[in-house]
């Protein structure tokens, strides 16, 4: 058999054999002298451990000084702060306080025999009295 004719257009370019010390390097292929030796890590300490968390129970069981210098528990301080915020009109604080009262069983639910409906008598007033007492009526444009 005869060999097919060699066309230089289809032959791969000639590349000389490389020795092991002349290996290719670049992205992801560092030179051999800068690689870590076998069995040794680049991060010998490893990932740092997560800190041990503080429990809420430990925080709430601590003591704290009040405004007048007396020592109160942090639970009491939390409830006092919650009540103060609720009294200032903070609706979220009021809701939290009421939920706390429900869970602790401190809300009394007396059964009454009378319905708890308040009847407010209607009062006739003129438009001037209404504006004087309540401002502009609904639907009236601002001036």
Characterise the protein shown here.
This protein is mostly helical. It has a domain at 56-104. It contains four helices and two strands; from the N terminus they run H-E-E-H-H-H. The protein has a two-stranded antiparallel ribbon. Helix 2 (74-87) packs across helix 3. The longest helix is centred in the middle third of the chain and has 14 residues, at 74-87. The N and C termini lie far apart (109 Å). The mean pLDDT is 78.
Summary?
The protein has four helices and two strands, in the order H-E-E-H-H-H.
Largest sheet: 2 strands, antiparallel
Oligomer: single chain
Q: H/E series, N to C?
A: HEEHHH
Distance between the termini: 109 Å
Task: Give descriptors for this structure.
143 residues; mainly alpha; two-stranded antiparallel sheet; 4 helices; 2 strands; elongated
Sequence-ordered SSE layout with sheet pairings:
Layout: H1 56-60, E1 63-65, E2 71-73, H2 74-87, H3 91-104, H4 127-134
Antiparallel strand pairs: 1-2
